Amino acid sequence: MDQLSFIKMHGLGNDFVVLDGRSAPIPLSIAEARTLADRHFGIGCDQLIVMEPPTSEGADLFMRIRNPDGGEAEACGNATRCIASLVMNETGRDQVVIQTLAGHLPAETATTGEVTVDMGPANLGWQEIPLAEERDTLHLGIGAGPLQDPVGVNMGNPHAVFFVEDADTIDLATLGPRLEHDPLLPQRANISVLSVTGPDRLRQRVWERGAGITLACGSGACAGAVAAARRGLTGRRVETTMDGGVLTLEWREDGHVLMTGPVATSFRGKVERASLS
Ligand SMILES: N[C@H](CCC[C@H](N)C(=O)O)C(=O)O
Prior knowledge:
Helices cover about 15% and strands about 40% of the residues. The protein is α+β, with helices and mostly antiparallel strands. The chain folds into 2 domains: about 5-120 and about 260-275, Diaminopimelate Epimerase, Chain A, domain 1; about 120-260, Roll (Diaminopimelate Epimerase, Chain A, domain 1). Strand 2, helix 1 (about 30-35) and strand 3 (about 45-50) form a beta-alpha-beta unit. It is globular and about 55 Å long. The mean pLDDT is about 95. One of its GO terms (biological process) is lysine biosynthetic process via diaminopimelate. It is an enzyme of class 5 (isomerase). Its EC number is 5.1.1.7.
């Protein structure tokens, strides 16, 4: 019987089922991918990650990212840390390069033992977010209830960042999906609510595109750090507390965003391929 080996990993509770398709491709239908990610009928995860051979020089592997709704994502910060850590453990190197649709993302072991990833440049043009029409990306002008007038940032994937007094009081389960599907956002977006809790300290919760509320969102934390700095609310280096823990972000002068945080492997297993369809 055809079995699929998998590794369950997470970054601050943002969890992943990781498949290794580097030596032999793992063709998965959208339905199979959705079943694997389903927390009732499958293994369950926020994103399904498939490791594939790199498609360009200089990368250790290509990381394919699928949300539980079956949609493919261009970036996943927490998974990039997890996969970088996996490759570092395999190779004994403390620097690797993970390729995603967002580009080549260098990663290295931080002094804290955590992993630092260069998530690439924050893209700030209205067509890069992307938006359905020209807008000032610092003030998108959309909203629902207490969430109004976000900042748009693209980290390879689209983000709309809303600033509020207290992120913990927001009904994100209701407002998140409404805003994810706002007509201004043709590729939808990850929806963040952010509060400034101290000098260069942020509290952030995220309704993820195609996934819902997660315990942490790495690319969302990058987008939040850029949005806060652009609005003059913080400097370019912040600590962001998400439900699952703390990420450190730095929006470098060259436009790239560095994200540092922990990685964990939960368990390894096998699943009967036939049971997925
Ligand atoms: N839901 C996201 C992908 C996963 C992002 C998140 N898990 C992260 O750590 O960046 C999207 O569709 O763009």
